[in-house]
Design brief:
With about 800 residues, the chain is α/β, with parallel strands linked by helices. The chain is about 20% helix and about 20% strand. The chain has 17 helices and 34 strands. The strands form six sheets. It has a 22-stranded mixed beta sheet that branches. A four-stranded antiparallel beta sheet has the order 27-32-29-30, with no helix packed on it.
């Protein structure tokens, strides 16, 4: 080891590249090369590890997290091992697709499964794929288990709880449960994230790769052949047997049963007595909402160690009396027969979350003297309790962050709600008896979300502009709202504003003061214009004004607008600077037939904007190693392909004539497409469709290959409409096409139903005509002239040598 360190010191006067693979601890690097100060500026050190903390300890500033392979590249990697070529052989496409779905872009799984399935018959493939759904392949398990084996006992328990019960759940609720279980989740969750065993999503959900979930569940399955001797139960058949035949033991710590998958279970009064270590119990129903767990006497239920109790359709009017008051942190009894929270709830001082959603006979919350004991309560969910008419004074529940009262019969809120200084979310949607809110609500500096959708609210409290943290305001379907004279100047954090179907006849100029607004929903209203001040909303990415049948004009829109839905604005006559953005765009202008005479100008603006984006993409390609795909589209009335598209065809396909080497040096940037779409069946009026194209690619020394690309989403339209869009390749697309000397031979467009089968053939819609342009960038392109001239026919036929050209 000293000699190795000495060798590194001798290299300290040179620029060097060092790669350390699969480093597990900081000392491994430190003992080899010591400090970063040893190396000459310009040196590069690459470290791969399963633990981010190793990188932090050594002062690494740039951490790159490996991403799953995109579908096409995953399929190619799998095919190289399963078929010894770059794509599946004929007849194995659907089976290969199922393997792709299982592996989810993980190279290890793709290689292992490809080698395992190579040379095997279709029936063997089918059997193997079915087996993978329940048993992880040993070679995959062996590699994945390395990270698990490096955890301590607390961290292992957290990992197994997540794998068996909590994938996709809210991280904060899960942490409350894990903390009550004694697992120290603050550090434990952090360690699992650093080791890439779990991920915390942008909306604060715990997620993990399916293969890691299978690993965790396999570890539990290996605890015992007898389900009653395993720590965690989630498979409905195992749970049914344990509960029906009273086979539970002290080994069981958690049960999660989907009751929609089993027959009715008659619970023995002693069923839970043997499960003296039971921490987690969840009886839920994913389909019909029926409670299938029956017990003769709720007083016999023993839940002394339970921290998390969820029982959908709980059949009794009172809570079980044998719950340990200092251990229960989450109580969820949706659709239950509970009439009210009894006085016993005051003893549950650690109770963090109460959910009584859709309890139709629930009429009363605890009185104020009882609520004051629930000082750890964070979530109160009484959603859908249709007979609940009032909420008591709740000033003492100072830690509460979320109150959900949507669908209740509540008539007013107590003024003490202004004392809930930590309240983040208030949901009063569909409260048909609620006409006003107390002014004390405006004291809540932390409040981020208010939902009043479908309520009888007549006016908003004053001064609402004091809600400086408010991010979401939902007033959709509030037809009793007297006016929209909101003092927008104080709502600096407002990001999402929902004003759908509010019978609004005029929008205020102050709309432009919402400097943080990103999404604005204005569908089904009666205004004729949108204030020009909307241009000042620099962060606005989505604007929805569909079915505003009196809307006559759209002003110049913000430059960052990504999504515009203006379908069925039947009096819309003019647009202003619609395609001023260089970003990805999805604009829907279908069924706006007064725009017909403006169609040429709209299309020319769109093509010009795409030209500018192509120039920006060429610059990006020259300056960056990696870059994402870019795409966008617009739908509007029309039945002709613009002459600008030199490659056109009747029907849904076009044959292309391309020269060898067309992808060399990344010269092909992407393509612009145009299709005339038609729907032939009125029964699909409420459907949505995915629009795809397939490129038939000729590969060097290989059979032709098909590349599929998703281009956008289209709703039912009539009569014929024009779908115009673009797709710019990412770095992997271009590098792959260049490496294999790809030559595009043909392109075909088609639809798939959203939420339908991926292989479903749709006869209800089709492509009447289509056109395509491939963007080609000259090697010597260093600048670009005035883009407004690009659509002059002469210039298209005789392109400038330094401008983008079309193949």
């Amino acid at each position: 080891m000293p000699n190795i360190a000495l060798s590194f010191r001798r290299l300290s006067r040179r620029k060097i590249l060092i790669v350390f693979d699969d480093v597990s601890c900081f000392n491994q690097i430190e003992s080899l090369i010591g400090s970063l100060d040893w190396f000459m500026p310009g040196s590069r050190i690459i470290i791969t590890t399963r633990d981010k903390q190793v990188l932090r300890n050594w002062g690494v500033k740039k951490i790159y997290e490996m991403e799953a392979l995109e579908y096409d590249h995953a399929l190619e990697l799998f095919s190289r091992h399963a078929f010894k070529q770059t794509h599946p052989v004929v007849g194995y496409e659907e089976l290969s697709s199922k393997v792709m779905e299982y592996a989810q872009g993980v190279p290890l799984a793709l290689k292992v499964l490809g080698c395992f399935l190579f040379g095997r018959e279709k029936e063997v493939w089918k059997s193997a794929i079915n087996k993978l759904k329940s048993i992880l392949h040993p070679s995959i398990q062996e590699i994945l288990k390395i990270s698990y084996d490096g955890l301590d006992d607390k961290e292992k328990n957290i990992f197994l709880d997540v794998a068996c019960f909590f994938k996709g759940e809210d991280v904060y609720s899960v942490m409350k449960f894990l903390d009550a279980s004694g697992f120290y989740p603050e550090i434990g969750i952090s360690v699992l994230v650093d080791k890439s065993l779990i991920v915390i999503s942008n909306n604060d959900r715990i997620t993990m790769h399916d293969l890691l979930q299978e690993l965790g569940r396999d570890i539990v399955l290996q605890e015992s052949v007898n389900p009653g001797n395993r720590s965690r139960l989630w498979y409905h058949e195992d749970i049914y047997g344990v509960l029906t035949y009273n086979m539970g033991t002290e080994k069981i710590e958690g049960i999660c049963l989907d009751m929609s998958k089993v027959k009715e279970i008659c619970l023995n009064p002693d069923t839970f007595t043997k499960m003296c270590r039971l921490r987690f119990l969840k009886f839920y129903s994913s389909i019909n909402g029926e409670n299938k767990c029956q017990v003769s006497d709720f007083r016999a239920l023993r839940f002394a160690e339970v921290r998390y109790l969820h029982w959908h359709g709980y059949p009794f009017k009172s809570l079980p009396s044998n719950i340990h008051p200092e251990k229960l942190v989450i109580l969820e009894m949706p659709h239950s027969n509970i009439e009210q929270l009894s006085e016993s709830v005051q003893h549950h001082g650690k109770l963090n979350q109460i959910i009584m959603a859709a309890c139709n006979i629930f009429t009363k919350t605890p009185n104020p003297s009882l609520i004051q004991h629930l000082n750890k309560l964070v979530i109160l969910n009484l959603s859908g309790c249709s007979k609940l008419k009032s909420l008591p004074e709740i000033s003492s529940a100072g830690n509460i962050e979320k109150i959900l009262l949507d669908g209740t019969a509540i008539k007013e809120l107590p003024s003490s709600i202004g004392c809930l200084s930590r309240l983040l979310e208030l949901d009063l949607g569909d409260c048909k008896n609620l006409k006003s809110l107390p002014s004390s609500l405006c004291k809540l500096k932390s409040l981020e979300e208010i939902c009043l959708r479908g309520s009888a609210i007549e006016e908003l409290p004053s001064p609402i502009e004091c809600l400086s943290a408010l991010c979401v305001l939902d007033l959709g379907d509030c037809k009793s709202l007297k006016s929209l004279k909101l003092p927008f100047d104080g709502l600096y954090s407002l990001t999402y504003l929902y004003l759908t179907d509010c019978a609004i006849t005029e929008l205020p100029e102050s709309l432009g003061l919402l400097s943080s607004l990103e999404e604005l929903y204005l569908e089904r209203n009666n205004f004729e214009r949108i204030p020009e001040s909307i241009i000042r909303l620099s962060k606005l990415s989505s604007l929805l004004v569909s079915y505003c049948e009196r809307l006559q004009t759209l002003p110049k829109l913000p430059c960052n607008l990504y999504w515009l839905d203006a379908q069925h604005c039947t009096t819309l006559e003019s647009l202003s600077g619609l395609f001023s953005s260089y970003k990805c765009v999805c604009f829907y202008l279908n069924e706006n037939f007064k725009l017909d005479r403006k169609l040429r100008g709209i299309v020319e603006d769109a093509l010009q904007n795409i030209q500018l984006m192509a120039t920006a993409r060429w610059k990006e390609i020259r300056e960056k190693i990696s870059y994402p795909a870019l795409q966008g589209h617009v739908v509007l009335p029309g039945n002709e392909i613009p002459m600008w598209f030199s490659s056109q065809g009747m029907g849904s396909s076009i044959t292309l004539k391309m020269q060898p080497g067309c992808f060399s040096n990344n010269k092909v940037l992407g393509f612009v497409f145009c299709a005339i779409v038609a729907f032939r069946d009125h029964h699909v009026r409420d459907w949505s469709f995915k629009f795809y194209c397939e490129f038939k690619i000729k590969l060097k020394d290989c059979d032709p290959h098909v590349i599929q690309r998703y281009l956008g989403r289209v709703n039912y339209v009539e009569p014929d409409h024009l779908l115009l869009g673009y797709y710019f390749f990412n770095h992997q697309d271009l590098n792959g096409c260049w490496e294999y000397n790809c030559i595009p031979e043909a392109v075909q467009f088609y639809f798939k139903k959203v939420l339908g089968s991926e292989t479903e053939t749709l006869d209800c819609c089709g492509v009447k005509k289509c056109g395509i342009h491939l963007f080609h960038a000259s090697d010597s392109m260093d600048s670009m002239e005035d883009p407004s001239k690009v659509f002059n026919r002469k210039e298209v036929e005789e392109p400038h040598p330094k401008r983008l050209k079309y193949l």
